[in-house]
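Lab notebook, bench 4. Continuing the backlog of folding jobs that were queued last week. Each job is logged with the same field layout so the records can be merged later without manual cleanup. Today's entry covers cysteine desulfurase, a 380-residue chain. Filled in by technician R.K.

JOB TYPE: sequence-to-structure
TARGET: cysteine desulfurase
LENGTH: 380
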Amino acid sequence: MDHIYLDHAATTPMDPQVAEAMQPVMTTVFGNPSSVHRFGRKARQYLDEARRSMAKSIQADEKEIVFTSGGTEADNLALIGTSLANQAKGNHIITTAQEHHAVLDTAAYLEQLGFSVTYLSVDETGRINPDELKAALTPETILVSIMYVNNETGVIQPIEAAAEILSDHQAYFHTDAVQAFGLIDIDVNQTGIDLLSASSHKINGPKGVGFLYAADGIKLEARQHGGEQERQHRPGTENMAGVVGFQTAVELVMANKAERRGKYSQFREQFMERLTADGITYTVNGKLDDSIASIVNLSFPGTGVESLLTNFDLEGVAASSGSACTAGSIEPSHVLAAMYQDNDERIMNSIRFSFGSFNTTENVIEAADRVAKIVKRLTS
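JOB STATUS: finished
OUTPUT FIELD FOLLOWS
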């Protein structure tokens, strides 16, 4: 039995070209990029080239890119670093009820430090109401964090509208763009984004590396101490092989972004059409027109998450019930709970399917047939 991977939103397989680019760095570029000798300068050259690629991908300046260990660290640095560095201006933060736990748990930590946090609601389509953001702003608000694309539903938030509301306010605007990066065209200057988080392993790059874009002039307190690296924002010797792998992954996805969007959209439509043809009743969580092509979250009435995921795995289909950090959990989805009423059965019978480079038309259709067989058995 062939195993079919439909969990690319959790992590993606590394592109062979990425692994190829990393190999010589691991064996020959061993210098510390902070060293002034020949070996260090060679490593610094690789690091600077990678930083330029990251900056170009979001229309930023290379000096505004801070390499991190991934999206979670980037989110932590954005929220905690900005809040601590700017608390003289106020202690109010705004985020949403359906953020990734890298933001939600960080916001809860900041509340313990004495900051006040407002959590914006989302409607049944999974989107915030910009008017609620506008009403929540106070003279004490110093930071607003709204994810670009939800990792469970694929729903795209009204980032441009939020940025416009904040254009004449002191609050910095952060977006967790981990799921958006590589699929959506992002121009931080045109949009008005002050801080942005991205992660390598979501775009067929290596795990353990990401970046935080922090616009020039933003006061950002380091979360670690012990070095001058990354312009004093993130001390520690950089993960050179990871950075070069990330660079290659970025250059690859930026070169074929439109093609990938079209292919993933086709996979998503074929998957749902096959379920319908197989006689399966389901509903979509979120609005497809406002979602990225690679993710669809489906509710299967009369089933439960635990039995669905167990049987999917036994039939060789990899999917999940929520974010990557809770992929092994069967707890109710906080994202769907934010969208629906507490007693809505969709909170406990919904599965996220996410498409990517491991998929073909054939295995997507085969996966739909296996899912249909399981749902029929569980609901019979």
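OBSERVATION: The two ends are 25 Å apart (CA to CA).
SIGNED: R.K.
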